[in-house]
Specification:
The protein is an alpha+beta fold. It contains six helices and four strands, in the order βαααβαββαα. The chain has a four-stranded mixed beta sheet with strand order 2-1-3-4, with helices on both faces. A hairpin with a 4-residue loop joins strand 3 and strand 4. The mean pLDDT is 93.
Length: 127
């Protein structure tokens, strides 16, 4: 049974990384992260994303979001091995500690930034 989902953005979580991504995505148009498109609008997290995360919390499923540079942290070594440089992505954690790569960029891109389409891809893995 899945008790945590980790979403990893194809962006760096530093101030420089966030600013660079925002400018590249919203102004220049040459930077894209399909996971960011699902969870965020131009300036902040989408309300529908927050509601989806809250609905999972009611089912005792934690949602963690990380940026690709966070994987350099020693506490994320196993996660980094499972991801193997595939950004953005979604990884499921079982109660026994097993990690499973669920979705990569192809699947996330197919959602076209829509949380409903994303939830339909994730939900079968949560049962």
């Amino acid at each position: 049974m899945v008790n945590r989902l980790t979403m990893v953005y194809d962006a760096d979580g530093t101030i420089t990384g966030e600013l660079s991504y925002w400018v590249g995505h919203n102004i220049v148009g040459n930077v894209k992260c399909s996971m960011c498109d699902i969870s965020h609008g131009p300036f902040r997290q989408k309300q529908v994303w927050k509601a989806w995360v809250a609905s999972l919390a009611k089912r005792s499923i934690e949602v963690v979001t990380l940026h690709r540079n966070d994987l350099a942290n020693h506490e994320h070594l196993e996660l980094a091995q499972v991801i193997n440089g595939q950004f953005p992505c979604v990884v499921a954690h079982s109660a026994t500690g097993h990690l499973s790569f669920l979705l990569g960029d192809v699947e996330l891109t197919s959602c076209n930034g829509q949380i409903d389409a994303f939830a339909k891809l994730v939900e079968p893995h949560l049962a």
